[in-house]
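Explain this fold:

***
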Amino acid sequence: MASPLDASQQEDRVVLLDAAPRPAADTAEPFIVASDGRVILTYPIAESDFERFGPFDPDDDPFCAVLFADAVFHRLGPPGDADLSIHPLAAQGLIGSAVHEVVNSSLCAEIATVAAGSMATGPAAPARRHFVITFQASTFECVASDYTIIGVFGAGEIASREAFALVR
């Protein structure tokens, strides 16, 4: 017999987000800068996206910076690409080194239920979306109202500097 959590996970549908650069499969890991409600993730982009998001100099190691607005949840940790099959969303189409959105997210529903119970009055919270970005050694998940590609930069140090400037 399926538990209620199992039933809600059946609604989760993973879709690829082609507008964001794919993470590089075999290089540096992502970097997160966060403040209350804002999360910025920087990560190295896949070489296959260099032309689409470039041009870059031959010495460049391109990184992108992605802002998640009105974030209420984020995490970075296992599993990585090699053991992605253990992730609860693997059966719904989660793949390695890619950017995804989870439609009909059970995590968003759970967060909305908790938020509704803790806020008797006040302004309505913005609609939440569940994003998942998979990397070689880890997986990033974030529940936020939206995402914006801040930019694609020639090096990780530049992307990180931009991220820090935007969370102040």
Q: What stands out?
A: Residues 1-9 have pLDDT under 50 and may be disordered.
